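Example 5.3 — Methylthioribulose-1-phosphate dehydratase
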Amino acid sequence: MSADITALDLEEAGAHLAAESARFASFGWMRGTSGNLSVVLSRDPLRLAVTASGHDKGELTPADVVLVDGKGAAVNGGRPSAEAELHARVAALTGAGAVVHVHTVASVAMGRREPGGIVFRDLEMLKGVGQPAHDVEVTLPVIANSQDMTVLGDRLEAARNPRMPAVVVAGHGLYVWGADPRQARHHTEVVEWLLELELSPR
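Solution (predicted structure tokens):
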């Protein structure tokens, strides 16, 4: 293992990510093999456990994770998600300890409807991402998709709103982060709720 990360550390991270994946899959947010999750195991050098590519996210086991470096490359073999590089970029950019990527209908639909960014205001649920519930506007950025994770990372960095721990990738889905997997989960659920509300009939 790398950076004093043991096989047990990776297995424990895998068990946690498997449980989180099953939760999101049960909501229909990670259908088939879509979506991916990560947790930071070391900050210097940056190392993350990322869900492995090509697995049903509702059926992951503790072994279905890959240790990657700060560029998203596998450290000790295995095939990480194709978006592992972006997970590492988000962790380095924001200081996040965990990153969630889900493919929700609401995020794709709202990304199409509001390509310049999705504005929320006067909603109690904004407290769930650390913002006041009233008298402020908070914008969730929307960025164009790319199959090149470096390009996508550059777009995310340029558009990122420090007041919103998330970004919508147009035609793709939602990236959300937090200090740890629990906070990342809560942020994901809150942001998705906000998106579903905006999508609902007025």
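Remark. The radius of gyration is 16 Å.
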